[in-house]
Specification:
five-stranded mixed β-sheet, 23% strand, 124 residues, YaeB-like fold, globular, alpha+beta
Length: 124
């Protein structure tokens, strides 16, 4: 007997959606690579690992992860409804450590806001 799993729900918060739309206008190759990585996340969920996904240390959110595409990073978490919520996105080229110190707190705040219902799912 073979079981086929449904795809995981992937949701981009407004700020990540805006970043991705802008990227698609300025760097089509990068946006295509990121779209492919998001598709992989949707297909494999938490089973997707390195090199595309890695855990984040130093966060108050125990299951904060990063989607890694070249120098681009998208911080995300699987929420209680089994959706991947993409919280912060950007390019960390030239700011390897600083990028995390600035964006992990931002991801934590956006996740808190997500859980509080301050975001909608219109961008999924």
């Amino acid at each position: 007997m073979r079981y086929i799993r449904d795809a995981w729900n992937v949701i981009l918060v407004d700020e990540v959606d805006e970043w991705f739309v802008e990227l698609s206008h300025t760097d089509q190759d990068a946006s295509d690579a990121i779209a492919a990585a998001i598709d992989m996340l949707e297909e494999h969920g938490p089973m997707l690992g390195r090199p595309l996904v890695d855990s984040i240390t130093g966060s108050n959110v125990h299951n904060l992860n990063e989607l890694r595409v070249n120098t681009a990073r998208i911080l995300f978490v699987f929420d209680p409804t089994r959706s991947a919520i993409l919280l912060v996105a950007g390019d960390k080229a030239g700011a390897w450590k600083r990028w995390y110190s600035e964006n992990i707190p931002l991801a934590e705040d956006r996740y808190r806001r997500w859980l509080a219902g301050e975001y909608t799912e219109e961008n999924d």
